[in-house]
Protein backbone atom coordinates (compact mmCIF):
# COMPACT_ATOMS: atom_id res chain seq x y z
CA UNK A 1 0.00 0.00 0.00
CA UNK A 2 2.85 2.37 0.94
CA UNK A 3 4.65 1.67 -2.33
CA UNK A 4 1.47 2.31 -4.36
CA UNK A 5 0.85 5.59 -2.51
CA UNK A 6 4.42 6.69 -3.08
CA UNK A 7 4.18 5.94 -6.80
CA UNK A 8 0.90 7.85 -7.01
CA UNK A 9 2.40 10.90 -5.31
CA UNK A 10 5.45 10.77 -7.56
CA UNK A 11 3.19 10.55 -10.62
CA UNK A 12 1.15 13.54 -9.50
CA UNK A 13 4.31 15.49 -8.78
CA UNK A 14 5.71 14.61 -12.21
CA UNK A 15 2.45 15.67 -13.90
CA UNK A 16 2.50 18.95 -12.03
CA UNK A 17 6.09 19.59 -13.06
CA UNK A 18 5.27 18.68 -16.66
CA UNK A 19 2.29 21.03 -16.65
CA UNK A 20 4.40 23.82 -15.25
CA UNK A 21 7.10 23.20 -17.81
CA UNK A 22 4.60 23.50 -20.68
CA UNK A 23 3.30 26.87 -19.44
CA UNK A 24 4.84 30.13 -20.54
CA UNK A 25 8.01 31.65 -19.12
CA UNK A 26 8.31 34.85 -21.11
CA UNK A 27 5.99 37.52 -22.43
CA UNK A 28 7.08 36.61 -25.96
CA UNK A 29 5.86 33.03 -25.42
CA UNK A 30 2.55 34.32 -24.10
CA UNK A 31 2.13 36.67 -27.06
CA UNK A 32 2.88 33.91 -29.54
CA UNK A 33 0.49 31.49 -27.85
CA UNK A 34 -2.35 34.03 -27.89
CA UNK A 35 -1.88 34.97 -31.54
CA UNK A 36 -1.69 31.35 -32.64
CA UNK A 37 -4.76 30.35 -30.67
CA UNK A 38 -6.80 33.37 -31.68
CA UNK A 39 -6.23 32.28 -35.28
CA UNK A 40 -6.94 28.63 -34.47
CA UNK A 41 -10.22 29.27 -32.72
CA UNK A 42 -11.49 31.82 -35.23
CA UNK A 43 -10.73 29.36 -38.04
CA UNK A 44 -12.59 26.58 -36.21
CA UNK A 45 -15.47 28.94 -35.42
CA UNK A 46 -15.86 29.89 -39.07
CA UNK A 47 -15.83 26.23 -40.08
CA UNK A 48 -18.53 25.48 -37.49
CA UNK A 49 -20.54 28.50 -38.66
CA UNK A 50 -20.49 27.27 -42.25
CA UNK A 51 -20.95 23.55 -41.50
CA UNK A 52 -22.46 22.22 -38.27
CA UNK A 53 -20.49 18.97 -38.65
CA UNK A 54 -17.39 21.01 -37.76
CA UNK A 55 -18.89 21.95 -34.38
CA UNK A 56 -17.15 19.13 -32.51
CA UNK A 57 -13.71 20.23 -33.77
CA UNK A 58 -14.50 23.80 -32.70
CA UNK A 59 -15.53 22.61 -29.22
CA UNK A 60 -12.34 20.56 -28.85
CA UNK A 61 -10.20 23.58 -29.69
CA UNK A 62 -12.18 25.84 -27.36
CA UNK A 63 -11.87 23.30 -24.54
CA UNK A 64 -8.13 22.93 -25.09
CA UNK A 65 -7.61 26.70 -24.91
CA UNK A 66 -9.87 27.01 -21.86
CA UNK A 67 -7.96 24.21 -20.12
CA UNK A 68 -4.66 25.97 -20.77
CA UNK A 69 -6.04 29.11 -19.14
CA UNK A 70 -6.90 27.07 -16.06
CA UNK A 71 -3.79 24.88 -15.93
CA UNK A 72 -1.39 27.78 -16.40
CA UNK A 73 -3.50 30.10 -14.24
CA UNK A 74 -3.46 32.72 -16.96
CA UNK A 75 -6.46 34.56 -15.56
CA UNK A 76 -4.37 35.38 -12.49
CA UNK A 77 -1.35 36.33 -14.56
CA UNK A 78 -0.79 40.10 -14.36
CA UNK A 79 0.52 40.26 -17.94
CA UNK A 80 -2.51 38.43 -19.31
CA UNK A 81 -4.90 40.55 -17.28
CA UNK A 82 -3.39 43.76 -18.60
CA UNK A 83 -2.96 42.62 -22.22
CA UNK A 84 -5.51 39.91 -22.98
CA UNK A 85 -8.53 40.48 -20.76
CA UNK A 86 -10.91 40.53 -23.76
CA UNK A 87 -9.54 37.24 -25.08
CA UNK A 88 -9.70 35.59 -21.64
CA UNK A 89 -13.28 36.73 -21.05
CA UNK A 90 -14.29 35.74 -24.60
CA UNK A 91 -13.02 32.20 -23.99
CA UNK A 92 -14.87 32.08 -20.67
CA UNK A 93 -18.27 33.14 -21.99
CA UNK A 94 -17.92 30.95 -25.09
CA UNK A 95 -17.34 28.00 -22.77
CA UNK A 96 -20.46 28.55 -20.66
CA UNK A 97 -22.76 26.40 -22.79
CA UNK A 98 -20.23 23.56 -22.74
CA UNK A 99 -21.12 22.96 -19.10
CA UNK A 100 -23.85 20.36 -18.73
CA UNK A 101 -25.96 22.64 -16.52
CA UNK A 102 -25.46 25.77 -18.67
CA UNK A 103 -26.92 24.68 -22.01
CA UNK A 104 -28.74 28.01 -22.33
CA UNK A 105 -25.37 29.77 -22.34
CA UNK A 106 -26.10 32.08 -19.39
CA UNK A 107 -23.90 32.90 -16.40
CA UNK A 108 -26.24 31.01 -14.06
CA UNK A 109 -27.30 27.39 -14.30
CA UNK A 110 -30.29 26.44 -16.45
CA UNK A 111 -32.25 25.40 -13.37
CA UNK A 112 -31.63 28.73 -11.64
CA UNK A 113 -32.50 30.65 -14.81
CA UNK A 114 -35.87 28.94 -15.15
CA UNK A 115 -36.61 29.38 -11.45
CA UNK A 116 -35.79 33.09 -11.61
CA UNK A 117 -37.74 33.77 -14.81
CA UNK A 118 -40.76 31.54 -14.20
CA UNK A 119 -43.20 34.43 -13.75
CA UNK A 120 -42.15 35.93 -17.09
CA UNK A 121 -42.19 32.89 -19.38
CA UNK A 122 -45.37 31.04 -18.39
CA UNK A 123 -47.88 30.34 -21.16
CA UNK A 124 -51.15 32.23 -20.60
CA UNK A 125 -53.93 29.97 -19.30
CA UNK A 126 -56.27 30.76 -22.19
CA UNK A 127 -53.74 29.13 -24.55
CA UNK A 128 -53.65 25.95 -22.47
CA UNK A 129 -57.31 24.94 -22.53
CA UNK A 130 -57.98 21.46 -23.98
CA UNK A 131 -60.07 22.99 -26.78
CA UNK A 132 -57.31 25.35 -27.88
CA UNK A 133 -54.53 22.76 -27.57
CA UNK A 134 -56.46 20.37 -29.82
CA UNK A 135 -57.05 23.15 -32.34
CA UNK A 136 -53.30 23.80 -32.75
CA UNK A 137 -52.44 20.12 -33.11
CA UNK A 138 -52.72 20.03 -36.90
CA UNK A 139 -52.48 22.49 -39.77
CA UNK A 140 -55.99 21.52 -40.86
CA UNK A 141 -57.49 22.73 -37.56
CA UNK A 142 -55.78 26.14 -37.42
CA UNK A 143 -58.98 27.83 -38.57
CA UNK A 144 -60.66 26.76 -35.35
CA UNK A 145 -57.69 28.00 -33.29
CA UNK A 146 -57.96 31.42 -34.89
CA UNK A 147 -61.71 31.50 -34.26
CA UNK A 148 -61.03 30.85 -30.58
CA UNK A 149 -58.45 33.67 -30.53
CA UNK A 150 -60.92 36.07 -32.17
CA UNK A 151 -63.49 35.14 -29.52
CA UNK A 152 -60.93 35.89 -26.80
CA UNK A 153 -60.23 39.28 -28.39
CA UNK A 154 -63.95 40.00 -28.12
CA UNK A 155 -63.53 40.01 -24.33
CA UNK A 156 -60.33 42.10 -24.18
CA UNK A 157 -59.91 45.90 -24.27
CA UNK A 158 -58.49 47.50 -27.39
CA UNK A 159 -54.97 47.92 -25.99
CA UNK A 160 -54.88 44.24 -24.96
CA UNK A 161 -55.90 42.69 -28.27
CA UNK A 162 -54.00 39.56 -29.27
CA UNK A 163 -52.01 39.77 -32.49
CA UNK A 164 -51.81 36.45 -34.30
CA UNK A 165 -51.09 34.86 -37.66
CA UNK A 166 -49.83 31.58 -39.06
CA UNK A 167 -46.88 31.33 -41.42
CA UNK A 168 -44.01 29.21 -42.67
CA UNK A 169 -40.53 30.00 -41.37
CA UNK A 170 -37.77 30.62 -43.89
CA UNK A 171 -34.98 29.15 -41.85
CA UNK A 172 -35.61 27.22 -38.64
CA UNK A 173 -37.41 24.01 -37.75
CA UNK A 174 -38.60 23.38 -34.21
CA UNK A 175 -36.43 21.86 -31.44
CA UNK A 176 -38.30 18.56 -31.73
CA UNK A 177 -38.56 18.49 -35.52
CA UNK A 178 -35.91 20.02 -37.79
CA UNK A 179 -38.21 19.72 -40.79
CA UNK A 180 -41.26 21.48 -39.30
CA UNK A 181 -41.43 25.11 -40.41
CA UNK A 182 -45.10 25.96 -39.84
CA UNK A 183 -45.95 28.28 -36.93
CA UNK A 184 -48.83 30.00 -35.21
CA UNK A 185 -47.55 33.16 -33.53
CA UNK A 186 -49.60 34.89 -30.84
CA UNK A 187 -48.36 38.18 -29.38
CA UNK A 188 -49.93 38.74 -25.97
CA UNK A 189 -49.64 42.44 -24.97
CA UNK A 190 -47.97 43.26 -21.68
CA UNK A 191 -48.42 46.06 -19.18
CA UNK A 192 -45.19 47.92 -18.32
CA UNK A 193 -46.92 49.78 -15.49
CA UNK A 194 -47.53 46.48 -13.71
CA UNK A 195 -44.23 44.90 -14.86
CA UNK A 196 -46.21 42.40 -16.92
CA UNK A 197 -44.17 41.12 -19.87
CA UNK A 198 -45.26 41.11 -23.47
CA UNK A 199 -45.18 37.50 -24.66
CA UNK A 200 -44.51 36.11 -28.11
CA UNK A 201 -46.00 32.62 -27.88
CA UNK A 202 -45.30 30.41 -30.85
CA UNK A 203 -46.82 26.98 -31.52
CA UNK A 204 -45.03 24.66 -33.90
CA UNK A 205 -47.53 23.22 -36.38
CA UNK A 206 -47.21 20.03 -38.41
CA UNK A 207 -47.06 20.55 -42.17
CA UNK A 208 -50.30 19.99 -44.12
CA UNK A 209 -51.13 16.30 -44.32
CA UNK A 210 -48.63 15.23 -41.65
CA UNK A 211 -50.11 12.86 -39.07
CA UNK A 212 -47.43 13.27 -36.39
CA UNK A 213 -48.00 16.55 -34.52
CA UNK A 214 -45.22 18.94 -33.52
CA UNK A 215 -44.58 19.24 -29.80
CA UNK A 216 -42.78 22.55 -29.36
CA UNK A 217 -44.25 25.76 -27.93
CA UNK A 218 -41.84 28.64 -27.38
CA UNK A 219 -42.23 31.76 -25.27
CA UNK A 220 -40.13 34.90 -25.70
CA UNK A 221 -41.04 37.38 -22.98
CA UNK A 222 -40.21 41.08 -23.24
CA UNK A 223 -39.99 43.23 -20.10
CA UNK A 224 -39.51 46.98 -20.48
CA UNK A 225 -36.94 48.61 -18.23
CA UNK A 226 -35.48 52.08 -17.65
CA UNK A 227 -33.49 53.99 -20.27
CA UNK A 228 -35.14 52.13 -23.15
CA UNK A 229 -33.65 48.84 -21.97
CA UNK A 230 -35.69 45.74 -22.76
CA UNK A 231 -34.98 42.47 -20.98
CA UNK A 232 -35.84 39.34 -22.90
CA UNK A 233 -36.43 35.88 -21.42
CA UNK A 234 -36.88 32.50 -23.12
CA UNK A 235 -38.44 29.12 -22.56
CA UNK A 236 -39.33 26.13 -24.73
CA UNK A 237 -42.20 23.84 -23.85
CA UNK A 238 -43.15 20.42 -25.23
CA UNK A 239 -46.68 19.14 -25.69
CA UNK A 240 -47.31 15.52 -24.75
CA UNK A 241 -50.11 13.77 -26.65
CA UNK A 242 -51.57 10.92 -24.63
CA UNK A 243 -53.49 7.92 -25.87
CA UNK A 244 -56.62 9.04 -24.05
CA UNK A 245 -56.64 12.18 -26.22
CA UNK A 246 -55.46 14.57 -23.53
CA UNK A 247 -52.61 17.03 -24.15
CA UNK A 248 -50.27 18.30 -21.45
CA UNK A 249 -47.65 21.04 -21.70
CA UNK A 250 -44.42 21.10 -19.69
CA UNK A 251 -41.01 22.73 -20.02
CA UNK A 252 -38.65 21.05 -22.45
CA UNK A 253 -35.83 21.24 -19.91
CA UNK A 254 -38.01 19.88 -17.10
CA UNK A 255 -38.91 16.90 -19.31
CA UNK A 256 -35.23 16.04 -19.66
CA UNK A 257 -34.73 17.08 -23.29
CA UNK A 258 -32.09 19.69 -22.52
CA UNK A 259 -32.08 23.09 -24.19
CA UNK A 260 -30.21 25.30 -26.65
CA UNK A 261 -28.12 28.44 -26.43
CA UNK A 262 -30.78 31.16 -26.71
CA UNK A 263 -28.59 34.12 -27.62
CA UNK A 264 -26.93 32.27 -30.50
CA UNK A 265 -30.04 33.10 -32.52
CA UNK A 266 -31.73 35.81 -30.46
CA UNK A 267 -29.09 38.55 -30.66
CA UNK A 268 -31.83 41.18 -30.68
CA UNK A 269 -33.96 39.42 -28.08
CA UNK A 270 -37.13 39.09 -30.13
CA UNK A 271 -36.63 38.28 -33.82
CA UNK A 272 -38.58 39.95 -36.64
CA UNK A 273 -40.75 37.64 -38.71
CA UNK A 274 -40.05 37.23 -42.43
CA UNK A 275 -42.37 34.43 -43.58
CA UNK A 276 -42.00 32.33 -46.71
CA UNK A 277 -43.67 34.18 -49.55
CA UNK A 278 -47.30 33.11 -49.91
CA UNK A 279 -47.50 31.35 -46.53
CA UNK A 280 -49.46 34.14 -44.81
CA UNK A 281 -53.16 34.63 -45.56
CA UNK A 282 -54.00 37.96 -47.21
CA UNK A 283 -56.09 39.10 -44.25
CA UNK A 284 -53.15 38.46 -41.87
CA UNK A 285 -50.40 40.26 -43.79
CA UNK A 286 -51.10 43.55 -42.03
CA UNK A 287 -50.70 41.73 -38.70
CA UNK A 288 -47.19 40.64 -39.71
CA UNK A 289 -46.33 44.28 -40.42
CA UNK A 290 -47.83 45.37 -37.10
CA UNK A 291 -45.88 42.74 -35.18
CA UNK A 292 -42.59 43.71 -36.84
CA UNK A 293 -43.22 47.38 -36.10
CA UNK A 294 -43.87 46.41 -32.50
CA UNK A 295 -40.50 44.63 -32.40
CA UNK A 296 -38.79 47.91 -33.35
CA UNK A 297 -40.30 49.68 -30.33
CA UNK A 298 -38.71 47.40 -27.75
CA UNK A 299 -35.46 49.30 -27.35
CA UNK A 300 -32.02 48.00 -26.42
CA UNK A 301 -32.01 44.21 -25.88
CA UNK A 302 -30.64 42.85 -22.63
CA UNK A 303 -31.05 39.51 -20.91
CA UNK A 304 -31.85 40.30 -17.31
CA UNK A 305 -28.21 40.52 -16.27
CA UNK A 306 -27.71 36.82 -16.97
CA UNK A 307 -25.33 37.47 -19.86
CA UNK A 308 -23.29 40.46 -21.01
CA UNK A 309 -23.25 40.07 -24.79
CA UNK A 310 -20.61 42.81 -25.10
CA UNK A 311 -18.11 40.18 -24.00
CA UNK A 312 -18.57 38.47 -27.37
CA UNK A 313 -17.16 41.55 -29.08
CA UNK A 314 -18.21 43.52 -32.16
CA UNK A 315 -20.39 41.93 -34.79
CA UNK A 316 -20.83 41.62 -38.52
CA UNK A 317 -20.41 44.86 -40.40
CA UNK A 318 -18.79 46.75 -37.54
CA UNK A 319 -17.13 49.84 -38.90
CA UNK A 320 -13.34 49.82 -38.86
CA UNK A 321 -10.98 52.17 -40.64
CA UNK A 322 -9.25 49.42 -42.56
CA UNK A 323 -12.47 47.71 -43.56
CA UNK A 324 -15.22 49.36 -45.50
CA UNK A 325 -17.85 46.75 -44.73
CA UNK A 326 -21.61 47.16 -44.79
CA UNK A 327 -23.01 49.29 -41.98
CA UNK A 328 -24.92 46.50 -40.23
CA UNK A 329 -23.72 47.93 -36.94
CA UNK A 330 -25.79 51.08 -37.46
CA UNK A 331 -28.63 48.96 -36.08
CA UNK A 332 -26.87 45.81 -34.82
CA UNK A 333 -24.67 47.20 -32.04
CA UNK A 334 -24.80 46.93 -28.23
CA UNK A 335 -27.07 49.96 -27.83
CA UNK A 336 -29.20 49.08 -30.84
CA UNK A 337 -30.54 45.69 -31.88
CA UNK A 338 -27.57 43.76 -30.54
CA UNK A 339 -24.32 42.84 -32.31
CA UNK A 340 -24.33 39.90 -34.72
CA UNK A 341 -21.29 38.20 -33.22
CA UNK A 342 -20.02 34.69 -32.64
CA UNK A 343 -21.64 32.36 -31.67
CA UNK A 344 -24.35 32.91 -34.27
CA UNK A 345 -26.55 30.77 -36.50
CA UNK A 346 -25.59 30.71 -40.19
CA UNK A 347 -29.04 29.62 -41.37
CA UNK A 348 -30.62 32.61 -39.67
CA UNK A 349 -28.01 35.16 -40.77
CA UNK A 350 -27.88 33.95 -44.37
CA UNK A 351 -31.66 33.89 -44.67
CA UNK A 352 -31.80 37.54 -43.63
CA UNK A 353 -28.83 38.84 -45.67
CA UNK A 354 -28.45 36.37 -48.52
CA UNK A 355 -32.24 36.20 -48.72
CA UNK A 356 -32.42 39.95 -49.35
CA UNK A 357 -34.23 40.91 -46.12
CA UNK A 358 -31.28 42.80 -44.69
CA UNK A 359 -30.03 45.51 -44.64
CA UNK A 360 -33.50 46.78 -43.79
CA UNK A 361 -35.01 48.90 -46.52
CA UNK A 362 -32.45 47.88 -49.13
CA UNK A 363 -33.45 46.71 -52.57
CA UNK A 364 -30.46 44.62 -53.59
CA UNK A 365 -30.37 42.28 -56.53
CA UNK A 366 -29.79 38.62 -55.72
CA UNK A 367 -26.13 38.71 -56.76
CA UNK A 368 -25.59 41.84 -54.68
CA UNK A 369 -27.08 40.17 -51.60
CA UNK A 370 -24.88 37.12 -52.17
CA UNK A 371 -21.82 39.31 -52.52
CA UNK A 372 -22.70 41.33 -49.43
CA UNK A 373 -23.18 38.20 -47.33
CA UNK A 374 -19.81 36.77 -48.42
CA UNK A 375 -18.07 40.05 -47.65
CA UNK A 376 -19.67 40.29 -44.20
CA UNK A 377 -18.52 36.79 -43.26
CA UNK A 378 -15.04 37.28 -44.72
CA UNK A 379 -14.59 40.63 -42.96
CA UNK A 380 -15.66 39.16 -39.64
CA UNK A 381 -13.77 35.86 -39.57
CA UNK A 382 -10.60 36.75 -41.48
CA UNK A 383 -7.34 35.79 -39.73
CA UNK A 384 -5.14 37.61 -42.24
CA UNK A 385 -2.11 39.25 -40.60
CA UNK A 386 -2.18 42.37 -42.73
CA UNK A 387 -5.95 42.85 -42.92
CA UNK A 388 -7.30 41.09 -39.84
CA UNK A 389 -11.01 40.47 -39.57
CA UNK A 390 -13.29 42.26 -37.13
CA UNK A 391 -13.10 39.49 -34.55
CA UNK A 392 -9.33 39.04 -34.63
CA UNK A 393 -8.71 42.78 -34.57
CA UNK A 394 -10.90 43.12 -31.48
CA UNK A 395 -9.26 40.22 -29.66
CA UNK A 396 -5.77 41.61 -30.28
CA UNK A 397 -6.50 45.26 -30.90
CA UNK A 398 -5.96 46.45 -27.38
CA UNK A 399 -2.36 45.29 -27.61
CA UNK A 400 -1.61 45.33 -31.33
CA UNK A 401 -0.70 48.23 -33.58
CA UNK A 402 -1.89 47.54 -37.10
CA UNK A 403 0.69 48.14 -39.81
CA UNK A 404 -0.90 47.27 -43.15
CA UNK A 405 2.43 47.06 -44.96
CA UNK A 406 3.96 44.63 -42.46
CA UNK A 407 1.11 43.15 -40.46
CA UNK A 408 1.10 43.25 -36.66
CA UNK A 409 3.88 44.64 -34.55
CA UNK A 410 5.07 42.92 -31.40
CA UNK A 411 2.11 42.51 -29.09
CA UNK A 412 3.76 43.76 -25.93
CA UNK A 413 5.51 46.71 -27.52
CA UNK A 414 2.53 48.98 -26.84
CA UNK A 415 2.85 49.01 -23.08
CA UNK A 416 6.55 48.28 -22.60
How would you explain this protein's 3D organization?
36% of the residues lie in helices and 13% in strands. With 416 residues, the chain is α+β, with helices and mostly antiparallel strands. It folds into 2 domains: 115-302, no CATH class; 309-413, no CATH class. The strands form 2 sheets. Strands 1, 2, 3, 4, 5, 6 and 7 form a 7-stranded mixed sheet that branches. α3 (55-71) packs across α5. The longest helix is centred in the N-terminal third of the chain and has 24 residues, at 27-50. The model is unreliable at 5-21, 321-325 and 398-416 (pLDDT under 50).
Short description:
The protein is built from 13 helices and 9 strands. It has helices at 2-22, 27-50, 55-71, 78-83, 85-94, 110-116, 118-121, 130-135, 142-153, 285-295, 346-353, 366-381, 390-397; strands spanning 163-168, 182-188, 198-205, 216-224, 229-241, 247-251, 300-302, 402-403, 407-408. Helix 2 packs antiparallel against helix 13.
- In whole angstroms, the N-to-C terminal distance is 54 Å
**Approximately how much helix is present in the residues?**
25-40%
- The count of strands amounts to 9
Q: Give the number of helices.
A: 13
Average residue-wise pLDDT: 83
Strand content: 5-15%
The radius of gyration over CA amounts to 25 Å
SSE layout:
Elements: H1 2-22, H2 27-50, H3 55-71, H4 78-83, H5 85-94, H6 110-116, H7 118-121, H8 130-135, H9 142-153, E1 163-168, E2 182-188, E3 198-205, E4 216-224, E5 229-241, E6 247-251, H10 285-295, E7 300-302, H11 346-353, H12 366-381, H13 390-397, E8 402-403, E9 407-408
Amino acid sequence: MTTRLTLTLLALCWCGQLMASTCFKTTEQKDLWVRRNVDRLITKARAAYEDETAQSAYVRTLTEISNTFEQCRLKQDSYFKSHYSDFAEWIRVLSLDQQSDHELGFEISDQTYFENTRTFVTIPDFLLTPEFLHSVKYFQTLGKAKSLLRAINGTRPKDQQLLFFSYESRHLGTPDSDNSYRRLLIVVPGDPQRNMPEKWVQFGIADPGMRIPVRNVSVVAVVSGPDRITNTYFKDYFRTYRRDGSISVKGRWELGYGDDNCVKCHKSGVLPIFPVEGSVADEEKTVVETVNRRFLTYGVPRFGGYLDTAKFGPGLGSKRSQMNSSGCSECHQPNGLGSLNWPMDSVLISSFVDGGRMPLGSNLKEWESNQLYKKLIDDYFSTDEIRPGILKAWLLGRNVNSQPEHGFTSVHSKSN
